[in-house]
Amino acid sequence: MDTMAVQVRRLARVYGDHQTGVRALDGVDLDFPRGSFTAVMGPSGSGKSTLLSCVAGLDRPTEGEVVIDGENVTFWDEDARTRLRRERIGFVFQSFHLMPYLTAAQNVALPLRLAGRKADPRLARTLLDHVGLAERAGHLPGELSGGQQQRVAIARAFATEPAVVLADEPTGALDSATAKDILRLLRTAVTELRQTIVMVTHDPVAASYADSVVFLVDGRVAGHMAHPTVDAVAGQLAHLDELVAAVAR
Ligand SMILES: Nc1ncnc2c1ncn2[C@@H]1O[C@H](COP(=O)(O)OP(=O)(O)OP(=O)(O)O)[C@@H](O)[C@H]1O
């Protein structure tokens, strides 16, 4: 069994003309091991969202490859990539993206139904139990707080036991105490359940819950940090200009 959940190789994404267009990604090589929690950071426009979109198969790279669970998915057709997103990738967004007219349990079961699996109501309840929301299974998103909605979204993201969960600013809309609860939950999913998470964030506190941080600058990997602390990440972000200079060399 491959030990890498996700690998990207020489990944490039050019928007517009190949010569004069924007190189949103410019030769990115990254490995995301199974059971790892990686934060992706970098200035606005550095390519973080483009990286997630390419890994999710929402966007096609101009060059390079995306390998998920040992399978090169780069050239899969639209149908196969839709199945990939439904079955092998979980998503957590800043603004939760729950279906407003479905209960918490129905939202959690939705990926299983879309993947054509028999939706066992007990599984949705178990997943909600894991995120501390067993009592709220029958509630609609509008009846839940922001932090509770994000817990439902996390239970949903892990429902299909995906190869990787892609989280885009998962704590961006939450107050700092609620954000820490959510980050602890993500950390537990990695440590205890061997899930794999790739999280885009601007927040050094959020990044400090990860095993490592990848810094992107101008579409390139400008640095890595293992065992990040809040101070070390904030310090690196304050000196991104030095990373930029190193990339330009
Ligand atoms: N559909 C598109 N068409 C043209 N240019 C695009 C498109 N999507 C992204 N870009 C450009 O690609 C670059 C990388 O964008 P991306 O959204 O990946 O950055 P980001 O690091 O996620 O930024 P932010 O932190 O602001 O979300 C930017 O210069 C952006 O303007």
From TrEMBL:
The keyword ATP-binding applies. InterPro entries: AAA+_ATPase, ABC_transporter-like_ATP-bd, ABC_transporter-like_CS, ABC_transpr_LolD-like, MacB-like_ATP-bd, P-loop_NTPase. SMART domains: AAA. One of its GO terms (molecular function) is ATP binding. It holds the Pfam family ABC_tran. PROSITE patterns: ABC_TRANSPORTER_1 (PS00211), ABC_TRANSPORTER_2 (PS50893). Keywords: ATP-binding, Nucleotide-binding, Transport. One of its GO terms (cellular component) is membrane protein complex. Residues 6-243 form the ABC transporter domain. PANTHER family: ABC TRANSPORTER RELATED, IMPORT ATP-BINDING PROTEIN. This is Putative ABC transport system ATP-binding protein. It comes from Jiangella alba.
